[in-house]
Amino acid sequence: MDEDLKTLPYVNGGLFSETLPIPTFNVHTRNLLLASFEFDWSTISPAIFGSMFQAVMSRDPEQRHSLGGHYTSESNILKVLRGLFLDDLNAEFESIQHDLRALRAFNDKLSSLKLFDPACGCGNFLVIAYRELRRLENKVLERIVALQPQAISDISILCKVDVDQLTGIEIEENPAAIAEVATWITDHQMNQQLNETFGGSLTRLPLTKSARILRENALRRNWRELFQADDLAAGRVLVFGNPPFVAKANRSDSQNADHDLVCSQIRGAGVLDYVSCWFIKASEVLDGTRVKAAFVATNSITQGEQVAVLWNVLRRRGMRIFLAHRTFKWQNEAPNQAAVFCVIVGFAGRDLSNKRIFEYESPDSVPVERRVSRISPYLIEADENILVTSRTTPLCEGVPEIRFGSMPNDGGALLLTTSERDELLGEEPGARRFVRRFVGSKEFINGIERYCLWLKGVSPAELRRMPHVLRRVEQVAEHRRQSDRVQTQSLAATPTLFGEDRQPASRYILIPSASSENRRYIPIGFAEPELIASNLCLTIAGGDLFTFGILMSGMHMAWVRTVGGRLKGDYRYSNQIVYNNFPWPREIAGRARQRVIDAAQTVLDARSQYSDATLADLYDPLTMPPDLQNAHADLDRAVERCYRQTLFTTDSERLEYLFALYSEYVAPLGKL
User: Which of 127, 279, 408, 631: disulfide with 602, CB 3.0–4.6 Å?
Assistant: First the structure.
């Protein structure tokens, strides 16, 4: 062996167990290597390893999506760790700084903790958790030395927190290897900090301890078997991480099999996001123990129909939420970041007194902390037992029925662009009375012209006189005959009609089923029966100004944002979850009702002043006219006074009131 190499300390730990080829260097790569020597690598954040790995994965977005690889920034990791255990540990340390015996016991406590990330990836959560635990231990040691300076001859004896307290599960080989190395590097960094502070010489070489990084499928592993029963019972195990976000359409066959395995006994589990599996698995560990868990998750698990399905299971196992970060935009230091809207949920198998909600004015803003007495699965301060489930009829009496628009089921043959409409009418002017405007959410909001053939009531003779129309009807019949669905095949007998005709016969309220989350209000409007609403809209036949006013209010929008589902942050309006469950104000008559009607009309009047603007223009936060903003503010106040005389100041207040009212409304139904 080279004499220079002999001077290096023996490392062990399997870090250099494999023989790797030395890459060929040219002048450029040699200069890059030499330039890297000028950088002080000793204080580099361990989170950089995950970002580096994502930078490689970003070249293959399909692989990243299939794995659910969304590496979390250090700031977001700390949101999880502080809320789960670091804040409590720091508070405990502050309270015992002058008690030597308590400090020594606290030091033992730190070294007894088991940190577990069941979706550890490159180990970002584990290394930052370990770093913070070591930093806290250093503070403890400083106090012990200050209180008993003569009794400490070797500070390394008191340094008890070590990497073997870390456990992670990662299914992919490369991230798992990075995670193991990252924990050693972090340990080395913290040893250097200890030595600088106390003048010690702690090195921990050769490596005799390591983090336990299991290269396995976490969803097919029994997590309880990884820890001693007494550690679980005493709550010394802390579960955290950033489980993969994989939409159903992007899941692999093996991921679908994992999902089915974890959710096999759960009714309605088909709607659950893949990330829900980690919550369910964690609840098996938390049930009957003092263990706590906190995960970053896609916000979809706190909205729409998923909430009731997931929390019916978790609630039966005694899970209670003690930490909530409401929707925020995921960010990290890597390039090509995935567009993900996240929440953080901390939960335990018992009721904890210190409950906190962090609210964000916008997904990119700084959170504001609220201390609360309870947290519901919707991440608001409300009864945790309230779960909004699908309803086929409105919760409140007297509320008009809502329906989806009409679905052509035509293979596109009944639909026309503007140029196709003009060409058709140029050839067959007699078809004019059968051509109607056709709108979905996109067309309605953005003023896009689209048309359809609405052949309801057409006679055979009229159809024969329009060969171009007849050709399209033949295409519809063929499309339906070729379908795999028996029900669609039967529709081939009536090819002139939409597959599902739910068009109102009179003036109606039209609600887009999808709308940008950047808008403060979903642009709802009135439409005449000649405007055909597609199945991407919802309609309320005969809806009046009072109904319109309630739906356009801040009260209703607070409900939509919390109860409704989202797609990449955009609102998804649901008839059975949002509308049918919305708690309308109690029976309103007289002046209160009239104020809502008048304010609703003022909103429509303000819109009409801008005939050249689309609803997208009018409801863009940057271009919304001041008079329309004022009209909405008046409407919001009028609607709020239908609920109570004192106006609400925040959406949190509105939601607390609405959920309490919802609970009151559904209570009698539960006794039926």
Answer: 631
